Amino acid sequence: MRLVVGVVAASHPAPTAVVTALAVVLAVGAGAPVGTAVLVGAAVLAGQLSVGLSNDWLDAARDRAVARRDKPVVTGAVSVRAVRAAAVGAAVVCAAASWATGLLPGSLHVLAVGSAWAYNLGLKRTAASWVPYAVSFGLLPAFLVTAAGGTPPPALVATGALLGVGAHLANVLPDLEDDAATGVRGLPHRLGRRASSVLAPVLLAGGAGVVVAGLPGRSAVVLACAAVAGALALAAGVVALTRPASRAPFALSMGVAAVAVGLLATAGGRLA
Question: The whole model's pTM is what?
């Protein structure tokens, strides 16, 4: 049981759960049958687990160097070997469940997860650190809509990409100093805290804006949701500037994504 708890803690359970839940909601909203929705949920859950676990596995030495007590491999709650085995196993399950939805949608999701692994494997250290987030979050809704039998519009991919890059900036901000101390210099590190804190909410609000602009109607509910998304994005930027160590900006970025997914689900995953 201790091993299981340690592996779960190393999987980044909160974002894993949020992304999986949002994926299922969007798939159902896009018209996916129950069986397909279950496969989609399993594929996304396994994929997110593999990404989170591979992050803690590959970053184990760096996390120990800066004494990250929030990391199970640093506290000794679980071994690097166990996290590595779980990451690889989750990736295999992800590939099987993804392709069970069909060759095209499955390939889109495998590519999305592979892109996230590429970030963990080294792209996070470069100026192209934003690319895996744009690719992975852009392909995820495309996978969901395609698995449901639809054709994802370019605006849907753009929405995912904008939200992904915004989330990347918000997620890295609390770790800028620790990252710099261990040789990681991705895009947020090169831009600096202030510029990244401003750019993150702009991208998040832009992603939500693409959804609102692409919806067929502008009801009071849609406009209210747009206002909520804008407020959450703004809050993410303000907190990032005033509380550098806080992880709230990433949680707020997930809130923006949740609002966008809710709007997309009610529109059947379609944008004009």
Answer: 0.92
